[in-house]
Specification:
182 residues; alpha+beta; 7-stranded antiparallel β-sheet; 4-stranded antiparallel β-sheet; 4 helices
Length: 182
């Protein structure tokens, strides 16, 4: 049942990528590697905008070749992508794609020529600690099955800013009255 629900979510996400995959100038793509490109962008929900959190990472794989390519899905972003993150302090962290667990469920998504596939959104908080305020930069790598063999595709670089947490003071009560003698 879990696999079926996941598949439904993947198919729904693919439709979202179609609008991003077109010739819109707002979509940034990484370099073409063996006919495949990778794009990353941020999607913020209203509560994330208000809190200063960066949001979710939206990832699309685009096939610009004349042949079908296959995207391998495992369900865990750390098993599907490698992440390179630059923190505001200048520290660089590389999270390499984990080896696929033996016997783990996987399936491939067929991406036809001149088509794209949108991966389910990835919560950035689940990938790295974003407690440092300032500007972050992130690049993803993905392995796909292209006609020339397994291919590692690099995304466009994405930069975003995390705001410093603000402390909230409890509201002062203006309804207090002082009673003489107390």
């Amino acid at each position: 049942m879990k696999t079926h629900l996941y598949l439904v979510l993947v198919v729904a996400a693919a439709a979202a990528c179609q609008s991003r995959a077109g010739s819109s100038p707002t979509v940034e793509w990484g370099p073409v590697t063996n006919g495949v490109q990778l794009s990353i962008a941020l999607r913020q929900r209203e509560e994330q905008k208000e809190s200063g959190k960066p949001g979710d990472l939206v990832v699309c794989t685009r096939n610009v070749s004349e042949h079908t390519v296959h995207v391998v899905r495992y369900g865990d972003p750390l098993e599907e992508f490698s992440f390179r993150i630059r923190f505001p302090s200048g520290r660089n962290v590389s999270l390499e794609q984990r080896p696929y667990p033996p016997g783990s469920a996987r399936f491939t998504i067929e991406v036809k020529p001149n088509d794209a596939f949108s991966h389910p959104a990835i919560g950035l908080q689940s990938v790295c600690d974003l407690s440092e305020a300032g500007r972050y930069s992130i690049v993803l790598k993905e392995k796909v099955l292209a006609p020339g063999g397994p291919t590692e595709v690099t995304s466009n670089p994405l930069s975003f800013t995390v705001k410093a947490a603000t402390s909230r003071k409890p509201p002062s009560s203006t309804n207090q009255t002082s009673i003489p003698g107390f």
